[in-house]
Amino acid sequence: MTQTRERVEAWLGAFESALRDRDGERAARLFAVDSFWRDLVAFTWNITTVEGRAGVAALLADRLEDVDPSGFALTEEPSEADGVTEAWLRFETRVGRGTAHLRLRGGEAWTLLTTLRELKGFEEARPQGVEHELRKGRRSWQEEREREQATLGRVEQPYVVVIGGGQGGIALGARLRRLGVPALVLDRHDRPGDQWRKRYKSLCLHDPVWYDHLPYLPFPANWPVFAPKDKIGDWLEMYTRVMEVPYWSRAEVRSASFDADSGTWRVVVQHDGESVELRPAHLVFATGMSGKPNRPALPGQDVFRGEQHHSSEHPGPEAYRGKRVVVVGSNNSAFDICGALWEHDADVTMVQRSSTHIVKSASLMDIGLGDLYSERAVANGVTTDRADMIFASLPYRIMHEFQIPLYERMAERDADFYARLEKAGFRHDWGDDGSGLFMKYLRRGSGYYIDVGAADLVADGRIKLAQGQVDRLTEDAVVLDDGTTLPADLVVYATGYGSMNGWVADIVDRATADRVGKVWGLGSDTTKDPGPWEGEQRNMWKPTQQENLWFHGGNLHQSRHYSLYLALQLKARYEGIPTPVYRLQEVHHTS
Amino acid sequence: MTQTRERVEAWLGAFESALRDRDGERAARLFAVDSFWRDLVAFTWNITTVEGRAGVAALLADRLEDVDPSGFALTEEPSEADGVTEAWLRFETRVGRGTAHLRLRGGEAWTLLTTLRELKGFEEARPQGVEHELRKGRRSWQEEREREQATLGRVEQPYVVVIGGGQGGIALGARLRRLGVPALVLDRHDRPGDQWRKRYKSLCLHDPVWYDHLPYLPFPANWPVFAPKDKIGDWLEMYTRVMEVPYWSRAEVRSASFDADSGTWRVVVQHDGESVELRPAHLVFATGMSGKPNRPALPGQDVFRGEQHHSSEHPGPEAYRGKRVVVVGSNNSAFDICGALWEHDADVTMVQRSSTHIVKSASLMDIGLGDLYSERAVANGVTTDRADMIFASLPYRIMHEFQIPLYERMAERDADFYARLEKAGFRHDWGDDGSGLFMKYLRRGSGYYIDVGAADLVADGRIKLAQGQVDRLTEDAVVLDDGTTLPADLVVYATGYGSMNGWVADIVDRATADRVGKVWGLGSDTTKDPGPWEGEQRNMWKPTQQENLWFHGGNLHQSRHYSLYLALQLKARYEGIPTPVYRLQEVHHTS
Lengths: 591, 591
Hints:
2 copies of one chain form a homodimer. Chain A is globular and about 75 Å long. The first copy, chain A, is an alpha/beta fold. The first copy, chain A, contains 19 helices and 25 strands. In chain A, strands 1, 2, 3, 4, 5, 6 and 7 form a 7-stranded mixed β-sheet that branches. The first copy, chain A, has a 5-stranded parallel β-sheet with strand order 10-9-8-14-25, covered by helices on one side. In chain A, helix 17 packs antiparallel against helix 18. Chains A and B meet through helix 4, helix 8, helix 9 and helix 16 of A and helix 4, helix 8, helix 9 and helix 16 of B.
């Protein structure tokens, strides 16, 4: 046995012995003073990170007896680098099986990630597909599917209703299907994938294929690194079909209210022109982590004679050849839209209202994601699931410390690029603490552009740049607060999105939205992510202050990975497994 | 280095040295007296097996200089069992890279499989999906797709036309797409997958999921072991879309003729009501290895007042509740159709005309396929590609020797079952030489049933059994040659299919069909597979006696695996790489 393995085995032995003796204090002393235990559902029926020995002890005091953890064992040879020992583990609880990732420093646990992977008695198994015994009245698969489609939501009620059938809703729907939880995904578009198809023409994923896999069915080897929106649309449509996700297209949710007595929601849906009332136990908002479009109210919008729309409604550049377009905003959508308009010979001006963080796509792929999600990572044995676990194992509290050096390397590599941008008057930042794009995404979900070519157009003036706030619109122009007048035939508001609980206000009510509070963000006390520190993303994939109300979504990576933990939480409730939530999050902000 | 490895390295060293010296005789002496070298395109631009030292020497005398093989090297540690050393290799040729599988016995090569995997300069690479430089006039993926759909087959001619868009045509279409060969798949149905959807209701795959993967995109982990036909239909439809296979539905080929001067085909297609003429260089028949339905001509068919149809047209059992049905035939389709009719309360009689081989599905899965295609195989590291290679490495000449003991085990395991069948009067066989189902499939493509439950219905009389040939039909009955009269409202002819060159006769002409000859079979001189010995399946996936005419198909395993070699043969021709064919097969039978 190697020394590294001995060290891990010794720690595990001591840890498990303390757990067996129900001695949470002793177990906590195996953690470093500065340490983090992140649990995804396995110990806490929550997504939560506790810090330090006191945090560990408190968690165990509350949960140890009920969870009854056991069987911690290495699943592969542990490794050691820079004084940190890294180990991959499996373990069991009373009701499930999990995997874990452990980092030891000086013989003490520095980080521990525990994740629930399956519930005992409800393991995901490959179905046989056909009974090999003939009997009268046996139904074919197709007949069974047709029966289900005719009855679900009408004769039989789904246990879970998912509002929103983009990648998030679909991934969750696939998990619930496989776990045997009756669910129904509702979406307002004509068919799955339209969430992508209906966006502006030049849109491609900014994340690479290795980051974007959906559960169960990875993209094939010939899938493009950065998939075009219509291709993703096709994939989502076929995925929904072959995974047999119960899905209603052309279904708009008009209202929802929770009946605490019966423990069910009353969800009113306009489906294909017909009003249907659904009575699920659980309601999941998968309406897009970006939430509702922020549409700025500006003086003069009523007198402006041209066209104006939010970036989410922008149809693409074709109709604007030769037109003067003012795009308000300077993040991803703004750059994408400006770039496509320029390609189609529009006269484009970008209005930068606040500073933006830009990284070149190639640098982000190589330095930011390359170790986890890339051809290189795959060649090194870092499968998608392993990458997801490694990423999840870094506590949010210290994640920026790992991110800062990566962005310092990008700054160095692309120094010329940034110099050119600055010379063009573009205000650029690296995040409040220099931690770059990914922390901006996790904290506020905005404030950046992954450059796929449009930044150069700004740098050399092919896309014009204006600085400042919009003061008002006139009949034919946008006027900034410094008096600059930008003649316009079209104004695009690339002004971002609000918190996802805005959808709750619309569909349930304002009181529920406020009780649930702001969705997304870590409480990092940086721009647009006010404190106090939360330790996890607010309200995402875990119980909220509204019973039986959940939020799901994020990028493709998050939709894939966290859909598992949300699905298992729902499955446990469906099967009547007790799910006492440890440290239900408090709410500090309403939006 | 292990002794096993030393032995392989020594053999490889001597082999490569002989090849380098262009000394085919010396290389041949490294093979055993009884030995087999099977080549899939790499050395021969053909699919061919040579036997013994003379066969090896002749192949090398003809091909060595041109192929210029080199770089034979182990890709993993070789293994040894029962006196046979097994090694996995890679190698190169002048134009490509390949993998190989070698078995040594007593230091001599017993079997060698060489396969071409890619052409140098034309390796399959993941596309970027988007250019990260903006420029005016850039087209989006969707626009590019729409342009292609508007022009292919009209403004631009495909290099390859594939007739038939079932699993075979689709798999080949996906390979050609990825290799950048302009191709067009034609299919007469309304949409991809209808080839399966339109079959009888109870149809499920008889082969298990691990055997059935298509190229590039394996079925997901929740795919049923035996997929129902409609689910396979959905999969094929979505596969066609996401793999961007150029595919015309509602396209019937009316005629095709080869113009030797221009080296192109003139293919007349009725597409969506419009007549289109295509001018591809190559024409691939992927019309189903089963070929055209055999419709027996029987006296009295004109006076019979009930319904009669071939099994391929059977709509399913719903309409026949309470009806008397006579099913002529006793192979897979007959059993499936009889079973579903019985489930729907029809009065069913099966007419057995000749003896049938039956194996229980579970036994076939476990004993017949389990080592290569099963959950167990996957757990043992036998990936689909590895299983395909192992299977391909067994020369057809001796394959029955490996098969016979498997079927002896099945006979023993299911002895009670066979006794009950015999007692019911069912004539059962194990193939001419006891080699069972798979050899029957390869030799004649018929004569068996994989039992998924219906055999029990015959054994206990719930499906009635009659023996003999059909003599004639009357107004309301089927009369057998012994005078037995079977009253019937419906007669189903589960009478199988003819050779695939029947389609060539219909579409091209009889002369071409005869020149190309019988498709399928090994020349084993067993029932329905007349000699002389061919060594490979006649006409499948390799050059035929008609220039630029090819056959593709078979089960899902064959469609997956052999589509690679056919695609590489077409790609080489498309790129102008010389492809001298070694030992173009001779034709001994016209059908």
